Amino acid sequence: MRKTKVYAEVAAQIQRLIADGRLKPGDKLPPERELAEVFGVSRTSVRDAIRVLETQGLVEPRHGEGTVVRQIPIDAIVTPLADALSATKDLTADLFDMRKMLEPPLARAAALRATGEDVRAMQEILERQARRVANGEIAIEEDNAFHYRIAAAAKNRVVLRTVDVIMDLLRESRVRSLQGPGRSEKSLAGHRRILDAIRRRDADGAAEAMRAHIEEIEMSLFPRVHDEAIRPWS
Predict the structure, then answer these.
(1) What is d(CA 166, CA 226) in angstroms, rounded to the nearest whole number?
(2) CB 181 within 8 A of CB 63
(3) Does residue 60 sit in helix, strand or coil?
(4) CB of 172 within 8 A of CB of 191?
(5) Domains in the chain, start-ordered, CATH in brackets?
(6) Please, are residues 72 and 57 in contact by the beta-carbon 8 Å criterion?
(7) By CB distance 3.0 to 4.6 Å, which of 159, 202, 205, 211 could disulfide with 104?
(8) Confidence class of residue 126 from pLDDT cuts 50, 70 and 90?
């Protein structure tokens, strides 16, 4: 790594600590000398990295306290994404691609991090969904709530807000995906498989169940596109 890039790498590593929640709003960064030892770089590189973080609004110097992690409004991160997606025409297929990239890892994280309260909340959502399905109703609110609760159980606020945006943008297609013979029952069965894996702390199983669930919904909306995607090379 070139010397001119050392400070950028240090800044990136501190950014990841903030994004992961290991450095929280109000936490003080360790002294420059300690950070230099931890990262194996010079104090000058640490100082330059902190300036970068200050410019980005992630930290701020406070008299008598040192450098403190700031409270960053989540919407300041997510709103530009929502605006860009909303301005895109016919974005449903792209959003499903994004869901397949985002939600299986979220289910994996939920299997590892979900509390007993999280699991009970998911179970209650599925019980409400089952009652609505039995009555022949479209359980769109419960469908949204279940996926949102998985994101909440993954314990990442930025991802949680991003999922909220995606679900809102996909509302119309979600209603369509739950219409038709057997679709609501399939959705409920998919949710149950995901919850079962989360309850067992089966991270790989939860990720796979989520991927299969999203692909099943995608296939009901775009059957021709899905068939072409999985057709073997001739």
Answers:
(1) 21
(2) no
(3) strand
(4) no
(5) 3-69 (1.10.10.10), 74-230 (1.20.120.530)
(6) yes
(7) 211
(8) very high
